[in-house]
Design a protein that fits this description.
alpha/beta; Isopropylmalate Dehydrogenase; 2 domains; elongated
């Protein structure tokens, strides 16, 4: 099948192997052999691919391979991988694959990074990995830039201002500075990477009924509403604070391009309800594009050939669309 001019002009995606004992390798193999929606190169140890995977080693991401064959930039790991069983000896290789993907994108050899899921405990045990996850490590590789996490599908984009912290810590962590940076990074990314000239944002309240005039909490009155008003006065299309329980039905979703939420579950419950299999994790604020499937390593089904590639495929499609928009 001939590639379009657009596909030829944009560098391939750098797809990391993730935890080689998880479902990352088999998802990449299934997507490549089933017809990838975007050109890709897989970074990892070919020993970790499922038996029978048609793959070809390449020296450079731009090197072509036959249709249905997985292009591989070989990266030798310390040990074989047993599906479903973490191998700490391979932690350094997993980290190196991420670093190589970022280096390829920074050099222009690849257009975006698509990361397969990792086991953070295995990385810490095997290589002293000092980061809570992919997002923080990628921000470090980018020089310490401020980033936010977006979860996206065709019907909804959500951005939690606070992420992996206890619910009791949210009111302390949620400051005007944090919320302001989250809004600004999201707004800029929607313009640069999603092609929206005038993004529309909706901001959820922290408390039930968005505080109900102070009867159920004062955060909305004290700083959330004034902050939103300042952005609105500056010309941003932004609404809120809105009661979170009425923000996510179909008619409400049609009124905004992304929802800024106050904490993890406020954002992730609606998107997982709307599109459980097809959600994509996007890191906003990086100088390069990074997406990831919105699921974990799935040790319980790894190696069985039953993992659903929908989210990984969606992550690749979104990365390709973002790269097209950015470049």
């Amino acid at each position: 099948m001939a590639q379009s001019a657009e596909r030829q002009q944009t560098a391939p995606l750098a797809v990391t192997c993730g935890d080689p004992s998880g479902i990352g390798p088999e998802l990449a193999a299934r997507i490549a052999t089933g017809g990838s929606s975007a050109p890709m190169v897989w970074i990892g140890d070919p020993r970790h691919l499922p038996d029978g995977t048609p793959w070809q080693a390449v020296d450079h991401p731009a090197q072509s391979v036959p249709e249905g064959v997985l292009a591989v930039l070989p990266l030798p790991f310390a040990a074989p991988a047993t599906p479903g069983r973490p191998t700490p000896e391979n932690a350094a290789g997993t980290i190196a694959a991420i670093e190589r993907a970022v280096a390829l994108v920074q050099s222009g050899a690849c257009s975006a990074v698509v990361t397969a899921p990792i086991n953070k405990k295995a990385l810490k045990d095997g290589a002293g990995f000092a980061f809570p996850g992919h997002t923080e490590f990628l921000a470090h590789l980018a020089g310490g830039t401020d980033v936010v996490m977006m979860l996206a599908c065709p019907e909804l984009r959500v951005v939690p201002a606070t992420i992996h912290i206890a619910l009791s810590e949210v009111p302390i962590a949620l400051t005007p500075d944090l919320l302001g940076r989250t809004i600004e990074i999201t707004h800029a990314a929607l313009k640069r990477d999603f092609g929206l000239s005038e993004p529309r944002l909706a901001v959820a309240g922290l408390n039930p009924h968005a505080g109900e005039g102070g009867a159920m909490g004062r955060e909305e009155l004290d700083f959330i509403a004034p902050l939103i008003a300042r952005y609105r006065d500056a010309g941003m299309q932004i609404a809120g604070p809105l009661p979170a329980d009425t923000m996510f039905h179909a008619a409400a979703r049609a009124r905004y391009d992304a929802a800024i939420c106050m904490y993890h579950d406020q954002a992730l419950i609606p998107i997982k309800t709307v599109d459980f299999a097809g959600g994509v994790n996007v890191t906003l604020g990086l100088p390069f594009i990074r997406t990831s499937p919105d699921h974990g390593i799935a040790y319980d089904i790894a190696g069985q050939g039953v993992a659903d590639p929908t989210s990984m495929r969606a992550a690749m499609t979104m990365a390709w669309d973002m790269a097209t928009s950015r470049h």
